[in-house]
Write a sequence for this structure.
């Protein structure tokens, strides 16, 4: 059974992945009811599920589908705490897209 690839992206890649499932890691900058704003190389609005428990100012990894308005519908959200090397995160995103044939089908 094949599983769907979930490429790591940041805000700059949202438009290229509309209607696809992705992974995005960023800092939670705001929580507003059913949505959160995450800074992942730019602000991204994520639509939270019932099981999403995010903490402001912590890093969070979001697995979800990119909507046509470039927001993300969350399938899974994981709080990574506050001790994250965002430069390393960006390096992984860069490598994912530089060598995309390894990580996902374009």
């Amino acid at each position: 059974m094949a599983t769907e690839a979930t490429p790591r992206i940041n805000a700059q890649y949202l438009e290229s992945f509309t209607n696809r499932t992705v992974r995005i890691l960023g800092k939670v900058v705001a929580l507003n009811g059913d949505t959160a704003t995450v800074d992942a190389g730019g602000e991204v609005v994520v639509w939270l599920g019932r099981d999403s428990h995010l903490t402001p100012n912590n890093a969070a990894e979001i697995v979800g589908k990119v909507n046509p308005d470039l927001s993300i519908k969350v399938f899974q959200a994981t709080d990574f705490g506050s001790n994250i090397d965002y430069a390393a995160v960006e390096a992984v995103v860069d490598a994912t897209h530089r060598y995309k044939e390894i990580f996902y089908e374009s």
Q: What stands out?
A: Helices lie at 86-98, 100-103. Residues 4 and 21 are 8 Å apart (CA to CA).
